C-alpha cells in the first residue's frame, strides 16, 4: 500500500495529521508532508481513516 497526496486538491487542513500523526505532518511552511509513503500494517486503520476523512479527497491509497 502506498499513500499519496494530491497537491492541487490539498488545502493543508491537517485533519489527517490528527488521525495518523506518524504518517502525516505539516512542515514549517504549513504544507502537508507524507512521512511514510508505505505504512506498516499497524498504521493501516489510521491511514485509511485519514484518507476517508479528508474533506477535499486529497489523499489516496494504492496497492503497490
Provide a descriptive summary of the structure in words:
The relative contact order is 0.35. The protein contains 2 helices and 4 strands. The chain has 64 residues and is of the alpha+beta class. Helix content is 23%, strand content 22%. The chain has one domain (2-62): Alpha-Beta Plaits (2-Layer Sandwich), CATH 3.30.70.20. The termini are close together. A two-stranded antiparallel sheet has the order 1-4. The model has no long low-confidence stretch (mean pLDDT 95). It has helices at 15-19, 44-53, and strands at residues 2-5, 24-26, 32-34, 59-62. It is globular and about 30 Å long. Keywords: 3Fe-4S, Electron transport, Iron, Iron-sulfur, Metal-binding, Transport. Its cofactor is [3Fe-4S] cluster.
Q: Count the domains.
A: 1
Termini gap: 5 Å
Trace the largest sheet across and list its strands. 1-4
Please state the structural category. Answer: alpha+beta
The tally of strands reads: 4
Shape: globular
Number of helices: 2
Low-pLDDT runs of 5+ residues are none
Q: Mean pLDDT, nearest integer?
A: 95
Keywords: 3Fe-4S, Electron transport, Iron, Iron-sulfur, Metal-binding, Transport
InterPro entries: Fe-S_cluster_ET (IPR051269)
Protein name: Ferredoxin
Organism: Streptomyces rhizosphaericus
Summarize the structure.
The protein is 23% helix and 22% strand. The protein is an alpha+beta fold and 64 residues long.
Amino acid at each position: 500500500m502506498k499513500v499519496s497526496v494530491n497537491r492541487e486538491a490539498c488545502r493543508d487542513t491537517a485533519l489527517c495529521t490528527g488521525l495518523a500523526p506518524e504518517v502525516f505532518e505539516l512542515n514549517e511552511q504549513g504544507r502537508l508532508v507524507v512521512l511514510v509513503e508505505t505504512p506498516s500494517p499497524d498504521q493501516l486503520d489510521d491511514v485509511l481513516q485519514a484518507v476517508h476523512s479528508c474533506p477535499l479527497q486529497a489523499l489516496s491509497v494504492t496497492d503497490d
